[in-house]
Amino acid sequence: MSEPAAIANKKPPLSAKELADSALEYHRKPSPGKIALQLTKPAETSADLALAYSPGVASPCLRIEESPAEVYNYTNKGNLIGIVSNGSAVLGLGNIGALASKPVMEGKAMLFKKFAGLDAFDIEINAPSPEVFIETVANISPTFGAINLEDIRAPECFFIEHRLRRRLDIPVMHDDQHGTAVVACAALLNALELQNKNPKNMRVLVLGAGAAAAAITRLMINFFGLLKRQITMFDSRGILSTQREAPIESYKMSFARDTRMRTLEAAVRVSDVVIGVSRGGVLKPEMLKKMRERPIILALANPVPEIMPAVALAARPDAIVATGRSDFDNQVNNSICFPYLFRGILEARAARFSWRIFFAAARAIAALAREKVPPEIVRASGGECLEFGPRYILPKQLDPRLLDFVVPEIIKAAKEPDTISPVATFGEGYE
């Protein structure tokens, strides 16, 4: 399909009210919510029930008591994710609380099932402190094969993940951090090639210093081998500089560097790459005009990016622009990654996520974007132009090839010794 024809066939975007009304109807009918249980064994006769429950169920119970690893052979533990949240940092909604976060967590469970065949329980916890949250998750952890921490605000999320990773014998990952970081690094890997830029020479500006920003920066440092002087981070009070008068929270100190720069405009001007995980509209077209040649802009704030793609490209036609939104080219979305990360680590029976696993996932995702896209995926994506280039640097969420492309690489990485010595660690500042 030609590009003009594809654009003509695209449906116009819904208004905010139309989208809200459609979403409410979608969640309410034909039955409330998005997930449900289903049986995997027959339960039609008395004989079936005798095997499924009393007295037959005693046999697998005793086998597991005797050898705990047998739980993976006789229960669904090895295919079951616990999606756990306190609702303190939900999407673009902020601290809306545990109960109001439930639709998001159900949506996460839906994506696990849709994309990777994984079952998931969403668990929303009213916890008055990180310690209570940690104890709650630890106490329920025997149910699950892995824990997906979700929508927990910084800096609590760092402390919670670090403590649970050390305490539990199953994989734990805060997807808002590491899933986002993997996809961002995959996007950057492809964009750097297209823009003919060498990571050793690039300068990166990170807008934001929360959970996603910290994880992207740490993974980027380790994945591309960047030096601290190549990265400038900007929070709501300005550049993270060792010379800054405004206080810097302890969990951000590892990103502060010695620099004379004081303004966002000055930082943008010397940057090859801008990665935004902050708030909408903070980047202005006049800033972009002064960036280095062939810039890369990942404007990932939701629902309004740091700069709209059309505005960015009008200012810098030589740029590659990505956002977190599905209605623009180059969506950086953690759903391209997290179902396959968990599928792979469960199949490998590994106890921990590692840098090697994240590196493997980023490379596999980037590699898939370079493959020819089948017509059915083009149709499912609304007829977009899906050919590796400035407008297509990442696979689409609905690309079924992600499962076969990414999972084997994760399994391989999970079974290899994690000999990578990270420059910046998972739980930095929380030892």
**How would you characterize the largest beta sheet?**
6 strands, mixed
Shape by Cα distribution: globular
Number of helices: 17
Helix content: 40-55%
What is the CATH-assigned architecture of the largest domain? 3-Layer(aba) Sandwich
Task: Give, in order, the helices and strands.
Answer: HHHHHEHEHEHEHEHEEHEHEHEHHHH
CATH superfamily of the largest domain: NAD(P)-binding Rossmann-like Domain
- Strand arrangement across the biggest beta sheet: 7-6-5-8-9-10
Q: What's the end-to-end separation, in Å?
A: 55 Å
Stretches where pLDDT falls below 50 for ≥5 residues? Answer: 1-9, 424-431
Q: What is Rg?
A: 23 Å
β content, as a range?
Answer: 5-15%
Query: How many individual domains?
Result: 2
Give the class from helix and strand content and strand pairing.
alpha/beta
Task: List the defining traits of the structure above.
431 residues; alpha/beta; Rossmann fold; six-stranded mixed beta sheet; four-stranded parallel beta sheet; 17 helices; disordered N terminus
